[in-house]
Design brief:
Thrombin, subunit H; 2 helices; 8-stranded mixed beta sheet; 158 residues
């Protein structure tokens, strides 16, 4: 009797351990068991700094993530995974933003006003590329240097 009880206890312990391991694998691995999401695409002129697994947000709320980024016809095609509970109007606008001043890039979606929605596998038609901070700083720096050089230049002799 004691031997059967011991074997039963070990079996239950192993089953509980496997259940816990499965739960941790699914939750930590962000596996999706079922179709609680759908895929949409967005085409940008540039996606500098955007990475796969970057969040997709609407009104500051995380609604999905970037699944893939590829080059198609000279532009960046971004594949987004969005929750089924989120319906995006076909005039929604996707833009690449930065968390903070020098933080990670993410995609922000501004809702549209249309009565038609983007179907799974569809494309967001209007996109805005990320703001290029380096180019802005460069324009500001070189623009101010040009102004200083113009003001320091001697007046032409008459």
């Amino acid at each position: 009797m004691d031997k059967k009880w011991l074997e039963f206890s070990v079996g239950v312990f192993i089953l509980v351990g496997l259940a816990c391991l499965t739960y941790l694998s699914v939750s930590l691995g962000h596996l999706r068991l079922g179709s609680s999401t759908y895929e949409i695409k967005a085409v940008f002129s540039t996606v500098s700094g955007l990475k796969t697994k970057a969040p997709v947000a609407m009104a500051g709320v995380n609604i999905g993530e970037v699944q893939d980024i590829k080059l198609k016809d000279g532009q960046a095609q971004v594949v987004l995974i969005v929750g089924n509970d989120v319906k995006l109007e076909d005039d929604s606008v996707a833009s690449i933003r930065t968390s903070g001043i020098i933080g990670d890039k993410y995609i922000s979606i501004a809702p549209g006003a249309s009565d038609n929605y983007i179907k799974p596998g569809g494309t967001i038609r209007e996109t805005r590329p990320p703001l290029d901070i380096e180019a802005l700083i460069s324009k500001f720096a070189f623009g101010s240097i040009e102004k200083e050089n113009k003001s320091a230049a001697p007046a032409p002799a008459e």
